[in-house]
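Quick one: structure for this chain?
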Amino acid sequence: MKPETITGADAANLQAIGGVANVTLSLVETGDAIRLEGLDGVGREVARRCLARLMRNPRLAADAGEVTRLAREISKQLDVELDDLGRRAFRVLEIPAAHAEIVRLVGRLNYRTSYTQNQWKHAIAAGFLCGMMAEELDLDLKVARRAALMHDIGKALTHELDGSHAVIGADYARRLGETEIVANAIGAHHTDEPFSSAYAYLVAAADAMSGARPGARRQLDESFHSRLEDLERITRGFRGITEAYAVQGGREVRIYVQEDRVDDLGAALDL
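Got it. Here's what it folds into:
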C-alpha cells in the first residue's frame, strides 16, 4: 500500500494525527514514505501506532474525524502503558512508588534514547549500580536506587521545557514531594547543582558507568563528525588562532596560535 492512500485529502489525516500526538507528519517528495518529525518520543510512538493501524485498516483513513478519534484512543492506551512501565521500574528495584506524575515520567523514558541507549533501561541499570555502591559504603540502598532511577526524568520533559534535564528533573522531584537528598542527586548528576550528599556522587558515577558500558551507546557517524567540525570552527573564531583540531573523540581541542599575537598570559585570559 502506498503512503498517500492513508494521508487523506490535503493530508488531513496526517494533520489530525499530528494534532493529537504533537508531532509533524508529511508525505515526502517522492510520495513513497511519510516523514515524522518531533522531539517528543511518546508523541512519535502515538503517530507510529496510528499509521500502522491505518495501514492495516485503510477504511479508517476515509474520515479525518475517525482518524482523530483513533489517535486519541491510542494516546490513552499508551498513557496506561507508561504508568505500568513506571510502576514496573519501582517494583524491579524494590523501592516504594513515587508520585503518579513521577511514575509516568519514568515510564516515558522508554521512548527516549541517548546515543541509541534506551533511557528506561538505563535508569534501572543505574539504580542497581548505585545501590551496589551504596551497600559497600553502608549507605541506604533504597535511597540510592530511588535517586538513580529518577535521575533522568527531566529528559521526558525537555521537549516541553527549556534548560538542563537534570535541573528540570530536580525541580519536579522537589515539587512532587521527594526528599532533598534525592532531588539534589538528580540535579547534581551533571554538576548543574553542587553535590550535597554522598548519594549525589554515587548517582553521577552510576549514570556514567551505565552509559559507558560496552555496547550501551553508539555514536551516529554523521552527527559525530558534525560536532567535531563545530568544535573546530568555534575554536578558530578566537583571536590569534590559526588552526584547531578536535582530538580524543572531541574531548580536547589542539590549537595553533599566532605567536606574535598570543603569549602565555594572553592565552589564559582570552582563550
